[in-house]
């Protein structure tokens, strides 16, 4: 997981333009656990509609991808 602090977001919400300083959270997981991650973010996030998007990785360093797969087990107890 990576936290990118102090990003500036401009977006339309409930008919108004909002401009906010936020943090960007990048979570690396497997496709099998994606729904669990989305559910957990929705439960814990303070926003009514947190922005959750998925970016698939088609290729990457095999050692890094193997490490991610080895540490992503599922469940909050692993954090």
Your description of this structure?
With 79 residues, the protein is α+β, with helices and mostly antiparallel strands. 27% of the residues lie in helices and 29% in strands. The chain is built from two helices and two strands, in the order ββαα. Strands 1-2 form a two-stranded antiparallel sheet. The longest helix is centred in the middle third of the chain and has 11 residues, at 34-44. It is elongated and about 45 Å long. The N and C termini lie close together (10 Å).
Which CATH architecture would you pick?
2-Layer Sandwich
Tell me about the biggest sheet? 2 strands, antiparallel
Total of DSSP H or I helical runs spanning 4+ residues? 2
Give the ordered list of helices and strands: EEHH
Q: What's the arrangement of strands in the largest beta sheet?
A: 1-2
Strand percentage, roughly?
25-35%
Named CATH topology: Alpha-Beta Plaits
Number of domains: 1
Tertiary shape: elongated
Q: Helicity, in percent?
A: 25-40%
Low-confidence stretches: none
Number of β-strand runs: 2
Radius of gyration from CA coordinates: 15 Å
